[in-house]
Amino acid sequence: MKHFNTIDFPSIHIRLLDGNNEADLVIFKEFLLRTKDYFTDYVTAVPTDEQVKEFFTSLPPKVLPSQKYMYGIFDRDRLMGFIDWVEDYPQKETGILGYFILEEEYRGTKLAQELYNALEKTVSDTGTKIMHLTFIEDDKRASRFWEKQGYKAISTHDGDYGKQLVVEKILG
Predict the structure, then answer these.
(1) What DSSP assignment string belongs to 123-154?
(2) What is the pLDDT along the chain (172 residues), one digit of tens a residue?
(3) Is 110 helix (H, G, I), strand (E, B) or coil?
(4) Cβ(97)–Cβ(84) below 8 Å
(5) How are the residues of the chain apportioned to helix, strand and coil, as percentages rounded to the nearest 5?
(6) DSSP codes, 115-126
């Protein structure tokens, strides 16, 4: 899944981010520092270069780097969000949405909905039939958004930030 389906916002564009590109790492680190409401670990400490790079290199078990895509969402030249997608995990035709993060001012907007719709169309066009994702169970805003998209809970587990809800959506 290399090319992302386009959306209807003239100043917004989406492109793959490259964890080996120094410029992408710099703008990604700046994004993390602007979204401390989401990345609470960075409220008290600036992420190291290694922690920034981990967003690009961390993979679930038995996943090849070629299965992972980090898409940057730009409003003109400013990174204002990103999507972390792993295809064919945990099995063929299933994918996991690791992150779908926007700066706070873009959340709950028509843009957020349109970006999600474009993502879903893109992954569906590449053969994905089931999408999974995980979020903190107490995050009511996330819960409402993902429920609105048609996701259903399939399990829970304890994570670093509390109880995690695993949800899935069957496409098509």
Answers:
(1) HHHTT--EEEEEEETT-HHHHHHHHHTT-EEE
(2) 667 767 778 899 999 999 999 999 999 999 999 999 999 989 999 999 999 999 999 999 999 999 999 999 999 999 999 999 999 999 999 999 999 999 999 998 899 999 999 999 999 999 999 999 999 999 999 999 999 999 999 999 998 889 999 999 999 8
(3) helix
(4) yes
(5) 35, 30, 35
(6) HHHHHHHHHHHT
